[in-house]
Amino acid sequence: MNPVFQIPDNRYVYLAFFTVVCLLTWATFGSLSEHLYDAFDDRDHLTDTAKILEDPAYLFSSDRLAAVRPTADLVFVVCYLLWEDNPAAYHIFKVCLLLFATLLLVYALRQAGVDLELSFLSAVLFLMNVAHFRAVHWITSTDYNLALIFSLIVLICFIRYLDRKKIIWIVAAALAMVGMMFAHPSGIAIAPFCTYFAWRKQKSLRMAVSAGWPLIFVGIVCAILAYWISPQHAQARGFVTAPNLSHIFENLLWYLGRLLTAAHWLPRVALSKDANLLEMGIGWLGWIGILVLCYRRIFPVADWAIWAGMMVLPFLNHPSSDIRWWPVGPSRQMYLASAGSSVVLAWGLRAAVDRVPEQRLKSLLLILCLIGILGSSFIFLKQSESITFYLEGRGYTAQQYISVGADQFEKAVHQSAYLVPEDTYFRLSAVFFMLGRSPQDLLEKAQLQGRNVHQLNMLLGICAFFQDDPDAWIAGEARVRKEIEKVKNKDCLLSEAAICYNNLGLYYYDQGDFKRAQALFEAALYLLPGYWTAQINLAEVFHVQGKVSQVLSTVREIFQEAIQEQPQDRDRLEKQRDQNMQDLTRWFETYHTFPTKKSLRSWMKNLD
């Protein structure tokens, strides 16, 4: 297939491409500088980095919070020395790594015999690939960025070794292999890929093995060392866990399918964190396509199709809990493989356009298709930031940075209400209530977008307590119970409602509005009679009002009502009631022995 455009291979063309890619990168990913740290892993890396600076031996310590990755660790050390605890700088650095990998991919493709036009198209599609967005957004995933860069360097050096037969190039490839393996061991797939590439070029299995064995040997040794240093980390379990054939087969199809379903868009099916039949079916077609490309000898595109297939292999045996517990998955695991799938997609785009007979129309069609794909990618890459904001909100809330967490949840909803996980509105409301902020406007907008109706109505019922009218409180509480009765599995909604009642009650307690706080804590307990935190908070409200004698009777009445409504759980509820009565009695006996509320609440948690 001939190129659509006759692009001259000179420095001015490369400079123009570099300029365009830089502008595209800035426009698409520049907003990442506004993001904070994502979940707990980012903080773990920073903690480990600070300890490494204090004691360099900690670099290889088995006590580290994050897995030992010397290449990535040293990069983090340099970054920490430059800008310390500045999340914006880390995000900008990651975007720079993505840009560098994009430019290096062009060079690697040219070395592998791909024409200039297809190299440029492939690199731009890789840069704007949606499937691997979390590898770009998440600071912790710097190891994936480095692994791809080193993998491309390995390939470039290996191709030069095949062409020039100079030992220095295989040595350089082996050294880059070490750097790659100690960035992220999943890059070990580059060793068999280089061996395959040698076989395809030289048509001799013996010569291919002779050329590729140093990389395979280095990869195996480094993999063993990586596991020996960090055997306890989740990333190592996929290599040492007994093979689960059904799980491997499922991932084999699902991963390749996800590379296509989320390539430059994010349809509803691509938001799933579990394998689904549609993506597995697309995965089947993907593997068949790889075989067809090889059988018909459509090289070098077939080589990069094999790259995409090989780069997902290291993740196939990972336990589901290690990959799928994030709201959208997998994403990081797609990063290395997407370099190959982008070449195939670029070739497919050009092949479709090539069917047009008239050259001018062909050129126009390719430009329009490229603009359409890049436009779609731009929109969904921007929207995918909502998931990152959501994860940031979870992380900061869990670390008790409630105000920051609330802001991140709100940004997630504003960025893309379509993409945020179902529990976003509960988490957002829970922290809003704790801060005394009403989420009513956001919840009503979510209703119009067709989100979880029962959950939203329940949360809106709790919002009624922001009004000063006690009758509105009664109506709101009735609305909450009505929505809970409508769902089959009530446990989740009961728990969410009780937590939100309790959080809003804490806010009004701190404001000195004990009447409203009491109503909220009692509402939480009517839903979950054994909710110990709400019981303690209710006890504090009664205590500060001098109504100590009413606490035990109120909690006992709440349990009695629950027993009447749930006679099948009578034994469990009575046992829980008796235990809670004892704990509350102990609470009153101990209340005045604590110098601060903080120390009192620490004691409360031990009783919970």
Describe this entry's structure for a reader.
This protein has 608 residues and is mostly helical. Helix content is 73%, strand content 0%. It has 28 helices and no strands. It starts with 10 loop residues before the first helix and ends with a helix. The C terminus is likely disordered.
Radius of gyration: 29 Å
**Unreliably modeled segments:** 593-608
Q: Could you tell me how far the N terminus lies from the C terminus, measured between alpha carbons in angstroms? A: 69 Å
Helical fraction: over 70%
Number of helical segments? 28
The geometry reads as elongated
Q: Tell me the number of strands.
A: 0
Element order, helices and strands?
A: HHHHHHHHHHHHHHHHHHHHHHHHHHHH
- pLDDT averaged residue by residue: 87
Oligomer: single chain
Largest sheet: none
Q: Structural class of the secondary elements?
A: mainly alpha
Beta fraction: under 5%
State the main characteristics.
mainly alpha, elongated
Concise structural overview:
With 608 residues, this protein is an all-alpha fold. 73% of the residues lie in helices and 0% in strands. Helix 14 (301-312) runs antiparallel to helix 16, helix 17 (359-398) packs across helix 19 and helix 18 (402-415) packs across helix 19 (424-435).
Describe the SSE topology.
Blueprint: H1 11-29, H2 41-54, H3 70-83, H4 87-111, H5 116-127, H6 133-137, H7 142-164, H8 167-181, H9 190-202, H10 205-229, H11 234-240, H12 245-261, H13 277-295, H14 301-312, H15 320-323, H16 335-353, H17 359-398, H18 402-415, H19 424-435, H20 440-448, H21 453-463, H22 470-486, H23 490-510, H24 514-527, H25 532-544, H26 548-565, H27 570-590, H28 597-607
